[in-house]
Design brief:
Elements (H helix, E strand, L loop, with lengths): L1 E3 L2 E3 L15 H25 L4 H9 L18 H14 L1 H17 L4 H8 L7 E4 L5 E5 L2 E11 L7 E9 L5 E10 L4 E3 L13 E11 L3 E3 H5 L18 H32 L12 H33 L6 H27 L11 H12 L7 H13 L9
Parallel strand pairs: 3-6
Antiparallel strand pairs: 1-2, 4-5, 5-9, 6-7, 7-10, 8-9
């Protein structure tokens, strides 16, 4: 047992998760329909416990959610990115922390599919249901050695690390003169790392994104992947996984992974507030005798429009990205910049919509544990995530419009 937030919780991944069964996205959606009410019921307790319960992880694994972006060759659904977006949005509407955690677990599987085939076999060869956490910031120390790399140091924000089997850690490979030469991701078994339990935040409390500590950890060369080929959409994993899903840019996939939970949280908050107001006012669905003030109704309408716009804009972008990949065309840099722009604007718009709902929903929602209050805290916590930096991303987009040859990082 591990003590987290003053409570004892189970530590380490469960022995079985979904039993490695291949599932189609249709089957996943059907199974997920039965899981969503359970996630909603567990959300408040998960927030208090600072951990998504193992029961939720196993329920989602059994539904095939974590393998929705994994390659079909390893039992994954290899689904369209739009399907991934919609599934994560639904989960996040039920529980924001669970949706955020699930989004990154799924996209980390997609990232692993870009690694050399030998690395993929290391993970999925005997455990197709394996989960991967990640801490991409290059905060640790990397030393190149004859048989690979040695890692030392601390990595923060490893979402759901207690449930994970492997970790993706960012690191800078130095040149001979000691200067930074290449930013890479290193695939490390969780058994080689120590979890430092230090997650206690305003929102996304159940994501349990603790620190990971490495002490003289050897990583074989085949378990390292440079960011550069991922940005060029020409990663070594395409030798095994040649489908269009794995020809999409890494920053675009990360943009979807960051935006889908936020939009889902906003949709969940909206639905909960509308349901609560209807019950409070005794409104009949068919009678439409609202009895509420016009200002409240106007705020609901505005929030609904903003949430819909956020979703529709990103769905358009994902379909265009997929079309380029399916027809084996290079994805224009303007398109890649646009999805990053739309991602940050969508998350900002969704957060503003939740603000409108929160401000006009009455005193009951300020009580800790209220579902709308929880969604408000969660969605604002996501805005601190580096990928959701509005000003920097908009500045990048504007600069790109004036200099079409530029290629900034994370685009």
């Amino acid at each position: 047992m591990t003590v987290v937030g003053g409570r004892e919780v189970l530590a380490g991944p469960p022995a079985h998760r979904g039993e490695g069964r291949p599932m189609s996205v249709e089957a996943t959606r059907k199974a997920l329909a039965d899981v969503l009410p359970l996630l909603r019921e567990r959300a408040a307790q998960a927030d208090r416990d600072l951990a998504v319960p193992h029961a939720s992880i196993e329920d989602l694994a059994s539904a095939g959610v974590f393998r929705i972006l994994a390659p079909s060759g390893f039992g994954g659904a290899e689904s369209a990115v739009v399907d991934f977006f919609e599934v994560i949005r639904d989960i996040s509407a039920a529980c924001g922390s669970t949706g955020w955690l699930t989004s990154w677990f799924a996209v980390h599987a997609w990232h692993l599919a870009l690694f050399p085939p030998k690395a993929q076999h290391d993970v999925w060869g005997s455990a197709p249901e394996a989960l991967l956490t990640a801490a991409y910031a290059a905060t640790g120390h990397v030393v190149e050695v004859p048989d690979g790399y040695r890692l030392e140091g601390r990595w923060s924000w490893a979402t759901g690390c207690e449930h994970a089997d492997w970790a993706l850690l960012g690191g800078m490979i130095a040149a001979a003169d000691g200067s930074p030469a290449d930013l890479a991701t290193f695939l490390v078994p969780m058994a080689d790392l120590r979890i430092e339990h230090n997650w206690d935040t305003v929102g996304l409390r159940a994501t349990a994104a603790h620190d990971l500590v490495a002490v003289d950890v050897l990583v074989p060369a085949h378990r390292a992947l440079s960011f550069a080929p991922c940005l060029r959409c020409a990663a070594p994993g395409q030798e095994m996984n040649g489908g269009p899903l794995y020809r999409l840019p890494l920053p675009s996939m990360f943009a979807v992974a960051a935006a889908a939970p936020v939009i889902g949280m906003a949709e969940g908050a909206y639905s909960m507030l509308v349901g609560w107001l209807r019950a409070r006012l005794g409104m009949a669905w068919e009678g439409l005798e609202f009895g509420s003030d016009d200002f409240n109704s106007a705020r609901l309408a505005a929030a609904s429009a903003d949430i819909d716009a956020s979703s529709l804009q990103l769905v358009r972008d994902m379909r265009e990205l997929t079309h380029y990949a399916e027809t084996d065309q290079p994805i224009p840099m303007a398109m890649r910049r646009r999805i990053r722009r739309d991602q940050v604007v969508a998350t900002q718009r969704a957060a503003a919509a939740v603000d409108q709902l929160f401000e006009h929903s009455g005193g009951a929602v300020v009580r800790t544990g209220n579902a709308i209050e929880q969604a408000w805290r969660n969605i604002h916590t996501t805005q601190a995530f580096a990928l959701n930096d509005l000003d920097r991303t908009l500045a990048m987009y504007g600069a790109g419009e004036l200099s079409v040859e530029s290629q900034p990082p994370m685009v």
